[in-house]
Structure formats: C-alpha cells, structure tokens
Amino acid sequence: MRIKTAILFAFLLNLGYVSAQNVAIGERAPRVKSFKVQIEEGKYLYMGFVHSPSRPCEVSAPKVLELINSNDAISATLFTKEGEKECEKWLVDISKSGTMVVMEADEIFHRFGVEYAPFGVILDHKQRVLWQGNPQTLDKSKIENIIQQWTSQR
C-alpha cells in the first residue's frame, strides 16, 4: 500500500509541475496585454512571480534581486496577484528599492501558467525564455552562465 501511495503522490506532484508553467526554454514568452515587455538589445529581464504569505518567496526574492542588481546586463520585475493592501512589508520595501513590482498581475500569472511561487523566468531582448524555474536555485555564476550561453548563440 505504501508503494502505491508513493507512486500516486509522485504522479500528482509531476502533474502539478507539468502544468505549473506555460513557457519553454528557447521559445518566445507568452504575450501579455497588461504588461509590455521591452528589453534593450544585449540586455535581459528576470521576471519573478511571488506571493507575500509564502516564506520561500520572502526569503528568495531579496537574494535573487541582490544577484540581479550586481549584474548590469539584467534587470528585474516582480509580479504578484495581490493588491496593495494585501502586499506584505517586504514586497513594498522591494518596490521602494527601485525594482518594479506589478501588483494584481493575475493575467500574467495565467498567461505564463504559473500556479506556484516562487517562480522565475529570464528573457532576452527578443523575449525568448532563456531560463525558467525556482529562483531559489539561482546564484551569481548560474545567472552569468545563462547570459553567456545565450550571448554566444546570437
């Protein structure tokens, strides 16, 4: 019985992962009416999907933004489904530090197929997805490798 339960649990987790995003590496990001993505040639954009009550979001977002801010080639925008009243202090503080925070971004979550947070996407100036996944896995060298890999493929 334990094996059947474990297999079912693994299957359900896998289903959640498969449906948790609507982006593919190397493909163009979904178009969104409510947010116009404009990235200069040779520059990159990190799109971070966050939710205030999520402890992993609260911990990972500032760390990722610190990494992004230390690299002139990439900027960051965070997206949340929450409104201004629901946003926690940490998210409001991030917006005060110069990082754009887009609130009530339900359409963007939907178009990208994001069902869990934290989730992140890195785009190039052609709005191709260069990386997508859990931002807790990002570090300085990984960001630099992503940029270097795609810069060499131009």
Main-sheet strand order equals 3-2-1-4-5
Q: How many strands appear in the DSSP assignment?
A: 5
Tell me the series of helices and strands, N- to C-terminal. Answer: HEHEHEHEEH
Strand content: 15-25%
How many helical stretches? Answer: 5
Molecular shape = globular
State the major sheet: 5 strands, mixed
Spatial extent as radius of gyration: 16 Å
| pLDDT < 50 runs, ≥5 residues | 8-20
Quote the average pLDDT. 85
Q: Strand pairing plus helix content: what structural class?
A: alpha/beta
N- to C-terminal separation? 52 Å
Report helical residue fraction. 25-40%
Brief summary:
The chain is α/β, with parallel strands linked by helices. The chain is built from five helices and five strands.
Topology:
Blueprint: H1 2-18, E1 44-49, H2 55-69, E2 74-79, H3 89-96, E3 100-102, H4 106-112, E4 119-123, E5 129-133, H5 140-152
